[in-house]
Design goal:
The protein is mainly α and about 300 residues long. It has one domain. The longest helix is centred in the middle third of the chain and has 48 residues. The chain is globular, with a radius of gyration of 19 Å.
Length: about 300
């Protein structure tokens, strides 16, 4: 696990030919050929997208020499992690906001969220970026680490590919409502425990009382059963008021409230990043302790 995290910290995303980018193209190719508004075909597409790669990784870690097994585990975790990517995508937004460069901040924020940013204010952009950091801390980092601790590189790969398909197909739109149902439910199941462990970690490293109150009173109102605890607790840990109004496709949408306190500002993006990075360090320490106990 440490080797994978170090590779992510040193190298970040590969500038070309990143495996997850190639997987996304393959998944898009499958969807175009199999999406016939059918739950069964959605399951078939999910299986064709995920199982061959997970099966190949399982074969590798069970048949290679010991040194290469270590290398495969570390590389699989590296390919699945997105900790440095979160830093590289979100911290430049905070810098642009501090410099008063609102057009650049809007352009950068549009890369990481699906909501409209053309007319977004500094507060809107700060809120969107903090929310993205908190949620993707679970999806791109802690869910991956949980499944790696449970099942090694193949477990991390299973989680990350399933999470990617949920992000691509798990929409409640006419195109994906039936086809993407299995992808969405599978991600809900795989993410259920990691999301709550992430929420507990945010609670432990922030304002615990506010975080627990927000988790208990706000999480259930959020549409996603896993994003709700993560984002409500993270917002409470930072003592920020998130959620509320956002625009998607020029259609305003009032989302449930998240957290308590003042609205997010540019400096809160750095605070949210520090919460995520400290949580990663906490998980490393706990994993080391578990490994020592299990000796």
């Amino acid at each position: 696990m440490v080797a994978g995290l170090v590779l992510d910290a040193l190298l970040g995303e590969l500038p070309v030919a990143h495996p997850l980018v190639g997987f996304g193209r393959y998944a898009s190719w499958l969807e175009k050929r199999l999406n016939r508004d059918s739950i069964a075909l959605g399951f078939l597409a999910w299986a064709c997208a995920v199982l061959p790669f997970v099966g190949l990784s399982l074969y590798a870690v069970n048949h290679l020499p010991q040194f290469w097994i270590f290398v495969v585990h570390a590389l699989l975790l590296y390919f699945c992690l997105g900790l440095r990517s979160l830093h590289e995508h979100c911290l430049p937004i905070a810098l642009a906001l501090r410099e008063g460069d609102l057009p650049n901040a809007r352009r950068l924020t549009a890369r990481i969220v699906s909501r409209d940013t053309e007319q977004a204010s500094e507060a809107d952009l700060s809120k969107a970026t903090v929310e993205s950091l908190l949620e993707n801390g679970n999806d791109a980092v802690f869910g991956t680490l949980f499944w790696f601790l449970l099942a090694g590189g193949p477990g991390a790969l299973l989680f990350r590919l399933a999470n990617t398909l949920d992000a691509m197909w798990g929409y409640r739109t006419p195109r994906y409502l039936r086809f993407g149902r299995f992808a969405a439910r599978c991600d809900d199941v795989l993410n259920w425990i990691p999301a709550r462990l992430t929420a507990l970690s945010y609670l432990a490293l922030g304002n615990a009382r506010c975080a627990w109150r927000c988790w208990r009173t706000q999480a259930a109102a959020w549409p996603s059963p896993n994003a709700g605890p993560v984002m409500a607790t993270g917002a409470g840990a930072l003592c920020l008021a998130l959620g509320g109004m956002a625009s998607y496709g020029n259609v305003p949408e009032m989302r449930p409230p998240l957290g308590e306190g003042r609205p997010a500002q540019a400096g809160d993006i750095d605070r949210a990043w520090k919460l995520v990075s400290r949580t990663a360090l906490l998980w490393c320490m706990l994993a080391a302790a578990l490994a020592w106990v299990a000796r």
